[in-house]
Request: fold
Amino acid sequence: MPDTTGRVVARHHDDVRHGTDERGVIRSIPMSDKPSYLGLLNAVSVAESDAGTYLSAWAAVTPSEEVRAVISTVALREAEHGLAFAKRIDELGYDVIKKDDPKSAERVAIAGSTTLSDKEKFEAFGLGVRQNGGRDVFDSFFENKDLDPVTGALLGRYIAEERDSGRKLAACYALLCEADAATNGKKNGGKGSSKSKQQGGKGKGKKIKGKK
Reply:
């Protein structure tokens, strides 16, 4: 879940800022009218941009065409979300504030690894977990009653695409698990499974706190 404490600052430092209303009309707005949901928009923009970066690195090295198709689709969505939310923040008269993330480089390194298997990468990033129809991290996004129509529409599209991406990733991971079990079953004559060595990977997936 995005860290909703992300800061967003106005690009104007006087007593007014300039932004667009729900009709796209530019107007001057007192600083006291700063939207209460700016922190959420900032957190989503930063997290999605980061996810787009490391997922693109993953898509570039996977030897599986099927995995590449799924990861590429999700990577494009993540990158577009980052830009779309940055654009909305700009329309409101503010700038995105990026926070230093010491894990960012580590995520890119794991994603771009040619020794870790795709299955190990799924597990390292905590991806591929199926939702059982219960509450998820996005359910609280519309609890803010101050959302303007344009921002609300953007959040709605974002949430729908995130949930669809989750389903795609879960299906992809399930297939990798099935293939891994079948391969290990053959290697061991059906007497249990050994450590996955898909794609020649020898390292065990390390759980990394990521965006998803």
